[in-house]
Design a protein that fits this description.
GO molecular function: protein transmembrane transporter activity
Subcellular location: Membrane
Largest sheet: 2 strands, antiparallel
InterPro entries: Tim23-like (IPR045238)
Number of helices: 6
Strand content: under 5%
Main location: membrane
Pfam families: Tim17
Distance between the termini: 46 Å
Radius of gyration: 28 Å
């Protein structure tokens, strides 16, 4: 039965509703979506950076997920090498689950704390300098590494700070190179 055609219902005649009857747009134009982000307020379009809360949540979540995943993989590898000759299947599965879970939790917590510290330093340095550039990220990596290992002594803190700064510098460099040479 076609839309908008009268239909007999006993003694009454009724018309079926067609929600598309007033749309006289070709179907091709109906699904052309914008490629740029759309903002409700003009002030939102001027801000090109996540807020401090979004930064904190994003970095901490990504850090925990990466740490937990890599820790679980390491725990699985360790558990597979710890099998003994007389172990039953239940015992082997239990060993894999326990070792993967323990190592995944430990690595995830460490990586989450490091990411939380990095996000805090990064947001604070951006607010203090009122610019967002590579130097902020590298300084945040330096500070995060140094503070994370500060309890191990000044030498360990300096080495960890240098490693943090180098790691963040390489990551930012790779990110800029990918943006430049790989169109998205």
């Amino acid at each position: 039965m076609a839309f908008n055609q009268p239909e007999k219902d006993g003694d009454h005649e009724r018309r079926l509703y067609n929600p598309y009857q007033d749309l006289e747009t070709p179907v091709q134009k109906l699904y052309q979506l914008p490629t740029q982000p759309e903002y409700l307020f003009h002030e939102e379009s001027l801000r090109q950076r996540r807020s401090w809360g979004e930064n904190l949540t994003y970095y901490t979540g990504c850090g925990y997920l990466a740490g937990a995943s890599s820790g679980a993989a390491k725990g699985l590898f360790d558990a597979l090498h710890a099998f003994e000759h007389g172990d039953t299947l239940k015992l082997r599965v239990n060993r894999v689950l326990n070792t993967s879970g323990l190592t995944g939790r430990q690595w995830g917590n460490r990586a989450g704390v490091i990411a939380l510290m990095y996000a805090g330093f990064d947001t604070g340095i951006v607010w203090w300098r009122d610019t967002d550039d590579v130097y902020n990220s590298v300084a945040s990596g330096l500070a995060t590494g140094a503070i994370y290992k500060a309890a191990s002594g000044p030498r360990a803190a300096a080495v960890a700070g240098a490693i943090g700064g180098l790691l963040v510098g390489c990551t930012v460099g790779i990110k800029h190179a990918l943006k430049r040479y790989i169109p998205v």
